[in-house]
Amino acid sequence: MKLVLASNNQGKLVELQALFAPLGVALVRQAELNIPEAPEPHRTFIENALAKARHAARASGLPALADDAGLCVEAFGGLPGVDTAYYATQFGYEKGDGNNVRALLEQMVDITDRRAALVSTLVALRSADDPEPLVATGRAPGLITRQPVGDNGFGFDPVMYLPAFGKTFAQLPTEVKNANSHRGRAAQQMLELMRERWFAPAPSAPS
After folding, report:
1. CATH number of the domain at 2-197, please?
2. Which of 81, 101, 112, 114 has the least CB density, counted as fewest CB within 10 Å?
3. Which residues bind substrate (predicted)?
4. Cα-Cα-Cα-Cα dihedral of 48, 105, 165, 19, to 10°?
């Protein structure tokens, strides 16, 4: 089964492709189908993910999978949230992972409450007009470090410390990160939903 991934993020594609491989699902980025990115005007992950999935499904005619994810910092009332990808631009930096990390550490330099969570919401649609989207949310709580540590992963991985492992996401092997990341947890839920709702054999009607 082929699904269009409503994202042009190569890191997301690699992570999700590995996670969905057991179902025989092949993900293709919307950019490869010449589909432009959808507007993301909403203030919640689920609303933006649904908008992106509907846009990709309508433009491609294929089932679609969309992810909206971000960092929710306790001391900032859950922000930057849906604005995570553009976080650095609020402080005069160009958009980019490195600048996002730099801006976050600068804004938290005097903050002692380092609690935060990476959150991912996945939405899958059989078609653009699917009235029953599959929705899965994964949350990976941790603490923001004072300096980046590790060189694996992307985004905020180098500053997201996980007490259970005693390491940041960027220090974990890929397979361990995928199993415990916000996106990994959401994807595991989505796999179960797809198995149950999309791939389960049809039961026989009583005679």
Report:
1. 3.90.950.10
2. 112
3. 7-12, 69, 154-157, 177, 182-183
4. 30
Residues near 42 by beta carbon (within 8 Å), at least 6 away in sequence = 48, 51, 82
pLDDT of residue 204: 74
Annotated binding residues for Mg(2+): 68
Q: Is 106 helix (H, G, I), strand (E, B) or coil?
A: helix
Beta strands in 94-183 (DSSP E): 115-125, 134-144, 160-162, 167-168
**Residue from 155, 44, 168 nearest 104 by CA:** 155
pLDDT tens by residue, the chain, 207 residues: 899 999 877 777 887 888 788 888 889 999 999 999 888 889 999 999 999 999 999 999 999 999 999 999 999 999 999 999 999 999 999 999 999 999 999 999 999 999 999 999 999 999 999 999 999 999 999 999 999 999 887 899 999 999 999 999 999 998 898 889 898 899 899 999 999 999 878 777 776
Which residue positions form the known binding site for substrate? 7-12, 69, 154-157, 177, 182-183
Catalytic residue of the set 67, 68, 110, 113: 68
Sequence ranges of the domains in the chain: 2-197
Residue 4 makes CB contacts below 8 A (sequence gap 6+) with 27, 28, 29, 30, 33, 35, 56, 57, 60, 62, 63, 64, 65
Q: Is 68 exposed, middle or buried (0-12, 13-18, 19+ CB in 10 A)?
A: buried
